TrEMBL record:
Entry's family note: Belongs to the TRAFAC class myosin-kinesin ATPase superfamily. Kinesin family. KIN-7 subfamily.
Lineage, highest ranks first: Eukaryota, Viridiplantae, Streptophyta, Embryophyta, Tracheophyta
PANTHER family noted in UniProt: CENTROMERE PROTEIN E, KINESIN-LIKE PROTEIN KIN-7F
Spans annotated as Disordered: 768-788
Superkingdom per UniProt: Eukaryota
GO terms, biological process: microtubule-based movement
Organism per entry: Tetracentron sinense (Spur-leaf)
Chain intervals with Basic and acidic residues compositional bias: 772-787
Protein name: Kinesin-like protein
GO terms assigned for molecular function: ATP binding; microtubule binding; microtubule motor activity
Gene3D superfamilies assigned: Kinesin motor domain
PROSITE patterns in alphabetical order: KINESIN_MOTOR_1, KINESIN_MOTOR_2
Length: 981
């Protein structure tokens, strides 16, 4: 590596793009030899490394025949491999990145006595030796090495270089991430100094005897070596720059279950704590292995907090999983391999860390600026122009094609709509005159013969049904029987073959419509189905599958919301009957026509494709807009693709993960643009959804992090916050983040409420069914499954709620701290939401909002609210100002005596300066000490004149929201909204 500075800086700039990259964690497995005890008790090894990458389980036990037997990793090391070899192949490259300014971490993971410490101490020694060797060979650079060591024992962080056992606190630094406060960092003199320090650590580390290891490491140990280097020729000059990175050597405590290796008392307690950290580590790795979606619970343990950047962040990481080969430990070994299998899917994104002097930075930026300017000036070589022409032509072609597609889709939609309306009319008729409407429907003339029979069956109360499930891709036979003697207990369902679905939806949206067919299906009907299957080239047995009746898959919600809101339940019944009529033994034409891809019929019956088409039309239109205007400006009607999907997810309002899409959409300028909203063609749901408050779409676009600050008049908040105190804050020209946060919660809750409202609406529509059919459970399940009904969860399982509340409260407090949330906001929230099950929705909202904010910050992004950009730095600034204001309030709100006693209580010397400010800076500064938190809240409450929590104040954080209105039909969302706004 060359020196960095001057010309070499340019060199570095060129290479840095290549250096910064995503890569998977390097995962290897090391098998240790059987030890004397294991050999003595003949505890054979069933594991074998069959090559450099694969380890297999030689399975001699029949009860284990279900388990996988082969596992593949970047490297596997046999029991006779030396640690040097393990280092060379499994850690060296990653560890030595540190000398190039890239953070790295090497972990040892495995059960107790599997060889973690044995492996890791060897790897640490070899790395250090190589680093010193490197330093010797690069005299042109000046190196500074620093060493720190800590252990996490019983969830307390201890400094291994200090005799003081006091647990160290973790602090969140917006730039550096989690830092360990007051951790000793020794600047190394030479190699022998490091050896000395390593021995100190070894002596300090918590060792205990377990049944499996006489000298078991009971803690997680992290040794951190930081290397800074600069080119000597630039040393001391103001154009120097420094590479700075750390390598962590992490020797984890045993991953076994407490019961296995530990007995009782201290060891058992250790086991719980060790397992909490390892459990979180496992969860973090598992979640990361599935991609970086959703919340990664780094903050659930100290270990994962400290090592956050090594787990999916700015670091290269290698994990060596050590295994005890003995048969008696096969379960633990398997767990280790499962962990390793997840870990190998995790990617990190390491970058070179350069600390530039101001002058170098300016130079670098100037160069970048001139490069961009020159790019702007020169339009590029002619080949580019040719390419653009070809590209334009291609896009024209696409536009033409899509316009045709739109026309066709509109035609299909109109057709579907008119048939759909026919059906509704029929439904209305039927409400007053059962069956009457069928006679008039063009497709249902044939059903008369069947009608009488069905009426009889229905009146005799045995009208059982089969369901025809349209558009599902899989087929099973076992549940379907063609015999006459079917039981009357269950509905049966038939599904159409795959190629049929393609007729209805080409965008792969999985639509599902279940249509009821009376259950007295006779042999002729079976023949009909056989014909169908022959016609589609599939065996009859392959097309039958049992699915739930009258179910519409969640993914088809775009169309469903509208349709559900419109179709009375009776109409669904009629759909069933209508199909049933054509399913009559005397008429086999109807169903085959469906399978032939009779679109008209399909559209007539499937309310989903109607909505889906609208959505599709909208999508295509949007795509065309994009094609027409590929470089949109602010007023363009074309949102970026991501936003199209976001807005769709937003409408679906289903899963927890919708948080991310909601959040992302909020940052999109496209949704902020009123003109855009006006021009975007409405889809079925938006257009027809009656209960949506005006401007809702706009609100949703900012759900996450409150935008409508302007909309919340001061009156709103004054209603419950002591008005004079707010005035005081205002009078000092401080736009506290508290006000904004409260507002942001309001808008986010409004959005969330809207989602819940949609659920209620669905359930209202489903109401009668709920009373008579098991379908109600399904609706309930849907809501719960997607985590949008936390209040219901809390009310349904009150015994879990207090614990869950505590957990969420803890998480929220930590997130407040991490995001520099206003202290006034924290105080209100903390004092208002004390664990009532009805509070769960507010907790959920707050958690989502904060998680989003934290994720945004940690990805280096900015949150945008009403044109105002929020960054870690700006929120920190706001918080600092707020503390200043609060410190001033202390003069007004506390007597001198009260202040004195507060200073004493909070450890502030009475002879020190700026005592009020000191106190203000201590408020809400500890996220773990409950007393601290309660006292902070009490002080802030007093300072802002917050006296009695009440419902009105709660409503600042959203609507007062009862889980289930007693009279569901009378539940009025609009009413609730207007009471809020
Ligand atoms: N590859 C190996 N070759 C020879 N001996 C080994 C090997 N790995 C581990 N051992 C021996 O096995 C014993 C346990 O190893 P070690 O203490 O490293 O396990 P550990 O996984 O760190 O256990 P704990 O989690 O309880 O601290 C030690 O006596 C060690 O010398």
């Amino acid at each position: 590596m060359g020196a960095i500075g001057g010309e070499e800086l340019m060199q570095w700039e060129k290479t840095q793009g290549a250096i910064a990259h995503e890569e998977k964690i390097l995962v290897s497995v090391r098998l240790r030899p059987l030890n004397a005890k294991e050999l003595a008790r003949n505890d054979a090894s069933d594991w074998e490394c069959i090559n450099d990458n694969t380890i297999i389980f030689r399975n001699s036990l029949p009860e284990r025949s279900m388990f996988p037997t082969a596992y593949t990793f970047d490297r596997v090391f046999r029991y006779d491999c030396s640690t040097k070899h393990v280092y060379e192949e499994g850690a060296k490259e990653v560890a030595l990145s540190v000398v190039s300014g890239i953070n790295s971490s090497i972990f040892a993971y495995g059960q107790t006595s599997s060889g973690k410490t044995y492996t890791m101490s060897g790897i640490t020694d070899f790395t250090v030796a190589d680093i010193y060797d490197y330093i010797q060979r690069h005299e042109e650079r000046a190196f500074v090495l620093k060493f720190a060591a800590m252990e996490i024992y019983n969830e307390a962080v201890r400094d291994l270089l200090s005799a003081d056992n006091t647990p160290l606190r973790l602090l969140d630094d917006p730039e550096r991430g989690t830092i360990v406060e007051k951790l000793t960092e020794e600047t190394l003199r030479d190699w022998s100094h490091l050896q000395e320090l390593l021995s100190t650590c070894e002596a300090q580390r918590q060792i205990g005897e377990t049944s499996l290891n006489e000298t078991s490491s009971r803690s997680h140990q992290i040794l951190r070596l930081t290397i800074e280097s600069s080119a000597r020729e630039f040393l001391g000059k103001d154009n120097s720059s420094t590479l700075a990175a750390s390598v962590n050597f992490v020797d984890l405590a045993g991953s076994e279950r407490a019961s296995q290796a530990l007995s009782a008392g201290t060891r058992l307690k250790e086991g719980c704590h060790i397992n909490r950290s390892l459990l979180t580590l496992g969860t973090v790795i598992r979640k990361l292995s599935k991609g970086r979606n959703g919340h990664i619970p780094y903050r659930d343990s100290k270990l994962t907090r400290i090592l956050q950047s090594s787990l999916g962040g700015n670091a290269r990481t290698a994990i060596i999983c050590t295994m005890n080969p003995a048969r008696s430990h096969v379960e633990q070994s398997r767990n280790t391999l499962l962990f390793a299998s997840c870990a190998k899917e995790v990617t990190t994104n390491a970058q070179v860390n350069v600390v530039m002097s101001d002058k170098v930075l300016v130079k670098h930026l100037q160069r970048e600026l001139s490069r961009l300017e020159s790019e702007l000036r020169s339009p590029g070589p002619t080949s580019v122009t040719c390419d653009s022409a070809a590209l334009l032509q291609e896009k024209d072609f696409q536009i033409e094609k899509m316009e045709k597609e739109i026309k066709e889709l509109i035609r299909q939609r109109d057709l579907a709509q008119s048939q759909f309306e026919d059906l509704l009319r029929v439904g209305d008729d039927r409400a007053s005159k059962p069956w009457a409407g069928f006679d008039h429907h063009p497709k249902l003339q044939e059903r008369n013969a069947w009608e009488g029979e069905h009426s009889m069956l229905e009146s005799s109360g045995v009208a059982d049904t089969h369901c025809l499930d349209v558009g599902v891709r899989t087929f099973r036979t076992s549940q379907y029987s063609c015999s006459h003697s079917e039981s009357n207990s269950d509905d049966h369902y038939l599904q159409l073959p795959e190629n049929y679905e393609d007729n209805s939806l080409s965008d792969g949206t999985s639509s599902r419509l279940s249509i009821r067919i009376p259950k007295f299906v006779g042999p002729d009907t079976c023949q009909g189905w056989e014909k169908i299957t022959q016609g589609t080239g599939k065996k009859f047995e392959d097309i039958c599958k049992e699915v739930r009746c009258v179910e519409i898959e969640e993914s088809s919600m775009n169309g469903k919301v509208k349709s559900d809101a419109l179709i009375p339940v009776e109409s669904e019944e009629m759909l069933a009957l209508k199909v049933a009529g054509n399913e009559d033994a005397t008429d086999q034409n109807f169903v085959p026509s469906l399978l032939k891809g009779d679109k008209e019929l399909n559209h007539t019956h499937a309310d989903f494709p109607y909505g889906a088409w609208e959505q599709k039309i909208q999508d295509v239109q949007t795509t065309i807009n994009c094609l027409i205007n590929p470089y949109p400006d602010e007023s363009s009607p074309c949102p970026p693709t991501a936003d199209i999907s976001s807005s769709r997810s937003l409408k679906l309002m289903r899963s927890r993960s919708c948080r991310e899409t909601l959040m992302t959409s909020s940052l999109s300028p496209w949704f902020e643009n009123g003109e855009q909203n006006a021009r975007t063609p409405p889809n079925g749901f938006e257009k027809d959804f009656l209960g949506r408050p005006e401007g809702f779409q706009r609100k949703l676009s900012v759900l996450n992090y409150g935008v409508n600050i302007g909309r919340l008049s001061r009156k709103d908040s004054q209603a419950s916050i002591g008005s004079d105190s707010i005035d005081e804050l205002k009078a000092q020209n401080i736009k506290t983040s508290a006000n904004e946060d409260v507002t942001s919660i309001r808008s986010f809750v409004a959005g969330l409420k809207e989602m819940v409202k949609l659920q209620y609406e669905e359930k209202l529509v489903d109401g009668p069914v709920q009373e008579t059919e098991p379908r109600a459970d399904e609706s309930g399940k849907n809501a719960k499954d997607v985590g949008l009904d936390p209040m219901q969860d809390a009310l349904e399982s009150p015994s879990n709620w207090p614990l869950e509340f505590k957990r969420q409260q803890r998480e929220i407090i930590e997130l407040w701290h991490a995001c520099n949330v206003s202290l006034v906001h924290r105080t209100y929230f903390f004092l208002l939401f004390k664990g009532d099950p009805k509070d769960s929705i507010y907790m959920e909202v707050e958690l989502r909002r904060l998680s989003f904010l934290k994720d945004t910050f940690s990805q280096g992004n900015q949150a945008v609210e009403d044109g105002r950009t929020l960054t870690p730095a700006s929120s920190m600034r706001d918080l600092r100002r707020e503390r200043e204001v609060l410190s001033k309030q202390m003069l007004k709100r506390f007597s001198e005596e009260q202040r004195k006693s507060l200073y004493q209580k909070w450890g502030i010397g009475l002879d020190t300066k700026q005592r009020r400010l000191q106190l203000a800076h201590r408020l809400w500064n500890d996220t773990e000490d409950t007393d601290h938190i309660m006292e902070s809240a009490a002080i802030v409450a007093k300072l802002v004149g917050f006296l009695e929590p009440g419902q009105a104040l709660k409503e600042m954080f959203g609507l007062s929201f009862t889980p289930r209105p007693t009279n569901r039909r009378s539940y009025s969302w609009k009413h609730s909204m207007s009471s809020l706004l």
